[in-house]
Write a structure and sequence with these properties.
456 residues; mainly alpha; two-stranded antiparallel ribbon; 2 strands; 75% helix
Length: 456
């Protein structure tokens, strides 16, 4: 066996080769060893810097420090969820990114300075709405006009059928368990279909307090755990649906509600190829981000004028602009890149902030009674199953319709983010907002109207 003799190679050349080898190894670590999207060395550095601030007793809540903090904890929780056996592929990442922080806060395992700074930052910046507006506008701009029209026209029927069946099944299960019909409907079923916390649980608690002569805080304390448990159920089901789509690809459009004909190019293929090819310039991306922000401001104006929730008003305006071709192809590309950035880089940090700032762990634990669990799971499950089969019957992709149906029992905008993340269908955010905000508002209004005029 022959061996290579490097004695004739100059020492300077050998040193240079060793230097190149070490450099390439370091680059390999930076590019391939990651926690979420964060290279492992940067992740470790972020942890050390955050720990130093915590030991000093003050973690600044300015945007620079909070970007690193939310990214560190958010991707750590998400990565933990992804690596769990079996359930890691069924939406556990979104669940862990939301509920592990909530549990850590409750049991005092997260440094107080982290909790305080995260809560202040989340509530003072309204960063969730920046996230939602960029996702909504980007996803709408990524669709072709025909799919957009057909999707919005058809999605209401599966949603309506799902809610009716979900309510009937939930009532049936509750009655079979010996629960009172009034308690089943108004304190279990209606809260999980009310559209979340801000747009659902709070208005519902105010209405109940006035009509039933109860304290609003007491009512909210009963409703909020049910909303959270319904949202958790929807996240799990969404993750399961995503796995089902991987196993049976003919049942899903991977974010497209309308079935494509054989040989037809999908909206993602035609609309996103240029945007995600890396050729979009920085000015175009900045313009796309500004478009999303301005459309949200238009939505805020609509809320002040007619009371329509700002995300919904923004959604309608964005759809209108898309339908009349008012946005240039170049600006569409910028919006799509902004959408992809927020989906990839901001989702888990946002979920961590939601878990810390507005997800009370004890409330969720209090809702875990067997009777509550059976009613909620049966209601959400039948709602989603109905959306699946009705969507399939009317020529839609059943798994994608079912994931939108999951959002009917989510925790508002935060729930939509978690559900669509678990289902890997962030492209469906516009339809999720319709399901959550419009569907929820209709349910709350109809429920309170029925309670006030027919039962009291």
């Amino acid at each position: 066996m022959s061996t290579t003799d490097d004695s004739h190679i100059p020492a300077s050349v050998q040193f240079n080769q060793q230097e190149i080898s070490l450099k390439e190894r370091w680059w390999h670590i930076l590019d391939n060893w990651k926690v979420g999207i964060i290279p492992l060395p940067l992740f470790i550095l972020a942890g050390v810097l955050i720990a130093i601030d915590c030991l000093n007793g003050k973690l600044p809540n300015d945007i620079v420090v909070m970007v690193a903090t939310l990214a560190f904890f958010g991707f750590a929780c998400g990565e933990f969820g992804k690596r769990l056996p079996i359930i890691g592929k069924m939406g556990a990442a979104a669940i862990c990114a939301t509920f592990i922080p909530s549990a850590l806060v409750h049991y005092g395992l997260l440094p107080t300075v982290v909790v305080t700074s995260t809560t202040q930052f989340f509530k003072s910046t309204n960063i969730l709405y920046l996230y939602i507006c960029c996702i909504i506008v980007g996803s709408i701009m990524s669709m072709n006009r025909q799919t957009l029209i057909q999707g919005f026209l058809r999605i209401f029927f599966p949603m309506l059928c799902g809610e009716v069946v979900g309510m009937l099944v939930g009532m049936g299960v509750g009655l079979a368990l010996g629960m009172e019909p009034f308690q089943i409907f108004f304190f279990l079923i209606l809260p999980i279909m009310a559209g979340g916390v801000g747009e659902g649980a709070i208005p519902l608690s105010l209405g109940y307090a006035a009509l039933l002569h109860m304290e609003q805080g007491v009512v909210l304390g009963r409703i909020l755990p049910i909303v959270m448990l319904g949202g958790l159920t929807a996240i799990v089901i969404s993750g399961c649906l995503n796995r089902l789509g991987k196993r049976y690809p003919h049942l899903t459009g991977e974010g497209n509600l309308i079935r494509q004909k054989a040989g037809e190019v999908t909206p993602q293929d035609s609309g996103l190829a240029q945007a995600f090819s890396g050729k979009t310039d920085v000015t175009t991306i900045a313009t796309g981000a500004l478009l999303a922000v301005l459309l949200y401001m238009v939505g805020m104006l609509g809320y002040r004028l007619i009371g329509l929730p700002a995300p919904v008003g923004m959604l309608f305006v964005a759809v209108l602009l898309k339908l009349v071709n008012a946005v240039s192809p170049r600006m569409l590309e910028g919006s799509q890149v902004v959408y992809k950035f927020f989906q990839t880089a901001v989702t888990f940090p946002i979920l961590f902030a939601v878990g810390v700032a507005i997800t009370p762990w004890q409330e969720l634990v209090n809702a875990f009674t067997l009777s509550n669990l059976l009613v909620i799971v049966s209601s959400v499950g039948s709602l989603v199953l109905t959306g699946f089969f009705v969507g399939k019957k009317i020529g839609m992709n059943p798994i994608d319709v079912a994931i939108v149906s999951c959002c009917q029992s989510g925790q508002g905008g935060t729930g939509d983010v978690a559900i669509l993340t678990a289902g890997n269908r962030m492209m469906l955010m516009p339809f999720a907002q319709i399901a959550t905000r419009i569907g929820g508002a209709i349910n709350v209004s109809a429920g309170l109207l029925f309670l006030g005029n027919f039962l009291l």
